[in-house]
Amino acid sequence: MEQGLGQDYIPASGSFDKSRVLNVRPLRCLVPIFPSPPNMSSFSLPQAAPFVSASPTGPFPPGVAPFYPFFVPPDSQRPSEQDPQAPFGVPNQAGPFGFNNPVQAAVPISSFRTPPRPQPAGAPNHNWGAVNGDTGPSRRSTRTRTPSAFAEEDGYSDSQNQSAQYLSSFSMHITDAEETSKAERKKGKSQKRARGSKGVNISSPDVEADPIVSNLLASINLTTFDTFRRADGDKESVGYILMIYDFLRRRITQIEDGKEATPGVTRRPDLRAGTILMNKGIRTNIKKRVGTVPGVEVGDIFFFRMETCLVGLHAPCMAGIDYMGLKISQEEEPLAVSIVSSGGYEDNVEDGDVLIYSGQGGNIYRKDKEVMDQKLERGNLALEKSLHRANEVRVIRGIKDVANPTGKVYVYDGLYKIQESWVEKGKSGCNVFKYKLVRVPGQPEAFTMWKSIQQWKDGVTSRVGVILPDLTSGAESLPVSLVNDVDGEKGPAHFTYFPSLKYSNPVNSVQSSSICACQAGCLSGDPHCLCAKKNGGYLPYTANGVLVNRKSLINECGPSCSCPPNCRNRASQGGLKVRLEVFKTKDKGWGLRSWDPIRAGAFICEYAGEVLDKSKVEEFGSEAEDEYIFDATRTYQPLEVLPGDLNEDPKIPFPLIISAKNGGNVARFMNHSCSPNVFWQPILREANKETFIHIAFFALRHIPPMTELTYDYGIVQTNNAEQRRKKCLCGLSKCRGYFY
DNA sequence: CGAATTCAGCGGTAT
DNA sequence: ACCGCTGAATTCGAT
């Protein structure tokens, strides 16, 4: 598939309308002016470089004025707001800066740049912006390059070609040795800093000394992250990194929660976990690139900026614009590779496929510093160059997280192209750069899906194919839609909806051992909290109800405890937290998915149904009908990422089998997958002075909206297992072919 | 209780 | 050395 770069850079000659392009982009536009030879692949060798650069000193074709549009006459409050179509705020083409006398009136782009600092004669000049009318020495004259260096520094990736052939054409910039020494230096630096800075970061070493964390780090097979994997990821390594990262983050949160809070000190488990993984080289896609990042798919979600750094989607951990230097012919230009739009600036995000993005700088969002005009440097310059080069820019959209209002969800919304740019006066009265980005067509839905879901929730539009708006008839705290937009089936076979587990008799209950007296809610590491004690000292959940790691059994607080209902050690008790729908899948019958994003470790639902007593269990053993059954006695593959001692295998003191055939909740619709995104966890909970075991489902990884929820059904180890096994339809490369 | 404020952070870029 | 669309903790302010 010749999607993306190639086609966009190499229009078939004559297929474009020069006047149209020029009208839209009056800047020096290399695409139409220097068409490349046809039949050139997007994956170009140096001699066939798609980038043909004009000489920095011109000549420019008639009517192409270099950079004048950035000139904003101080006295003419040029109305870009009123006419955003006029690129760069040029009201029309007649004025003194129109096409008629462009060159004379041209103001060099450098007029928007920081004045270059005085440099000794002959020093390298990094003033990229001074392309035309440059008074300083050109970069070309101060630096020579070998032809082969071009290929080495080409950061373009071809999403369809991540083969060894592709890799071999690049030389790895970062060898293992370099990587290690870099990490060592880094580590030394951070330790020094920790010592020197009033003990703010002093707890960092004991996080790594924590047995669970050091176990985790020791268990990671570092050969998995050899040079090859670090340079170019795949879905597996990206998923692995994200899972380790979030586990580490949750574990650090848990440890920190157990400590006395130091007033005024902000704890950043996200940064701590990120730094550890960075230093260990547990990351991928280190080499920056334009376009697709291998292993990251459109629609993938992140809950921390550090996650996008680790997988190479967006390297800066705070800045919104990521860019790289790219050698083009003899020039080096910064090109934007990705942006994050998260609401700090006055971005316009109304249309799902168009984004009006504000440039960086100018202290727009800082209250402690004086607001100033933005400058055409760093990311802003890179975006400008990317406009001219028409290269694809990854867009990550930050959205307020419904489940955690203080946090954000970042959605990778795929590739965009910058269509135009201009300068306008921001609210503060200072110049702000604006960039109009338009989504490259043909990509899977991502951000627009979020918008649709929001409209369904608001009742603005209705979901297509809804059979029942709430199949629970109000039995859950949130409605669960029944949807079929695939075929004519009107719904699953009849069953009774009830939201929790039904024990026919309390035989299987476990004796209640203790209750807690934490009136204000339980806290991790509190030696007085018996419930924390029962869970091994720490509470199993973080403050926002996220499960830190899988345990053989979790002891939640119950009605007899003194803690309030919102105590964090009751994560599975509040009913549904995400808006779910039961939907008709293409080939697996009915399935379950969520309208809301779900973060790794978040509670989804429990398995409701009737607990089969021992006699029925035996009867069940010979029964072929096991469509809606949860069977804790099956054997389960260990969860793929975390080592066994971190993710303990579930242990239930009796053979628990639940039937949801006649009645149950949404969990009965969850299908099997050999590479699931959900796992189950036994939970001990009190009711009427007795304790019962419940089966709760938690997210194994971050799950984007509308992704089917699946867990591993396990394998039955019986004589007639072969006949009863079902063909697995998960369709994954890891599929073991069957379940039960 | 949500919004606004405060502030230490970190990887990366540029000097 | 400097920079930035972080994110947690804390204070503020409108109910």
UniProtKB/TrEMBL annotation:
Coiled coil: none annotated. Keywords: Chromatin regulator, Chromosome, Methyltransferase, Nucleus, S-adenosyl-L-methionine, Transferase. The keyword NADP does not apply. Residues 184-196 have a biased composition (Basic residues). Residues 578-714 form the SET domain. One of its GO terms (cellular component) is nucleus. It is found in: Chromosome; Nucleus. Its main location: nucleus. PROSITE patterns: POST_SET, PRE_SET, SAM_MT43_SUVAR39_2, SET, YDG. GO terms for biological process: methylation. Residues 724-740 form the Post-SET domain. Residues 514-575 form the Pre-SET domain. Residues 72-162, 177-203 are annotated as: Disordered. SUPFAM superfamilies: PUA domain-like, SET domain. It comes from the Eukaryota. Residues 291-439 form the YDG domain. GO terms for molecular function: double-stranded DNA binding; histone methyltransferase activity; zinc ion binding. This is Histone-lysine N-methyltransferase, H3 lysine-9 specific SUVH1. It comes from Liquidambar formosana.
